[in-house]
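Hi there,

I know you've been waiting on this one. I reran it after we fixed the sequence typo, so this is the corrected version. Both the input and the resulting structure follow.
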Amino acid sequence: MPKYLWKGLNVSGSIINGELDAVDEEQLKQFLFTQQVALLEFKIQRNYFQKFNDFFLQVKSAELATLFEHIAMLTECGVSLPEALKIVTKQTRIFGLKRALQSISNDVEHGMQFSDAVQKHSSIFSPLICSLIAAGEQTGKLELILNKISEHLKVRAAIVREVKKAAVGPVLTLCFAVLIILGIFVFVIPQFQNIFLSLGKDLPSSTLMMFRISNFLTSSAGVVFLTLGLMFALIIKFGAQNSLIQKVKKFLIFVVPLAGKIGRLNDQIYVLQAINLSLTSGIPLKQALEFAAQTSTGFYARQALNDALDKINSGSAINKAFMRKKNNFFPDNVLAMIAVGEQTGELEKVLDKASRLLEHEMTDTLNKLTTFLQPVLLIFVGFIIAAMMLAVYMPIFGMANLF
């Protein structure tokens, strides 16, 4: 039984919070109602094993896109939703998704709303997706909404593929370079060190520094250092959903030239798509901004959305809500497009065009980053290896009276 961390409002008007074990959200609401507390917000408290388990059971955007596309296609052909869920459950080969679909199918078959059943699996389905499905059920346009969600997830998956494809070359180059440098320090330099020490000659400071580094890496302290480095990399990988790690990764991305621009473009594209998807589904603008803020992984995006919400609540237009004294979240051309869309009543179409414009810009930036990083990394690695070899060979040249 999951443990819920909740925040509620009691009869005296005070905000209180606590934790409670409950089967689901409905049971949590009912229990708090008996205590004369209105539930405001809640989240499931997960233990470390559950977080580790979620990492291995996480479902990719492309897989979710295919799922929603198949459900929409089946229901459009006249298949009932419970039957459609059973069919896609049988077809699914991904263990984590299959287990969730079995639970959703069972809940829907017993009369639960599709959106409520999906919401119980928050590790797979985001709040935005759950809200869109709920809007589709209320408006009777569930098939249309499911297709829209599928298109949105396909675009997100395409962006992820582009980023990974651009990163493969530089990452492999860097990893290969690190292995070569470690190999030189661990296996090559100790051989030269034994030779030089047996001669009893004075050595340059650069050569002595190479020997110290080599001695450290081959010692027990060096093994501990390398192990800690590997553990840190695994923590970054497995703890990708941790808020602190997310902030550190975002900061590192934003300080790297061109990579920072890619990070900003990714956040901007997501916000535009999320708002457009919500508005198309019949969700009001304010609620659309709230959903985008809740589901955005970018710190600057969430900050910009929360600021925009405050301004819209004060009566500001949406394009002006995203304006700041400096460093606007959206570029000027996108803000101008939003202003035109708001004036003409075609905001959904304009948001779609603006997101596509930024997608093209992101593709161009990724190509530039790949073109820039590959030679820079090769030159940098070559410089380091040349410096190491020069430090080792300088004493040999000195002994041969070449200098």
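Quick highlight: The chain has three domains: 3-45, 60-154, 155-403.

Best,
R. S.
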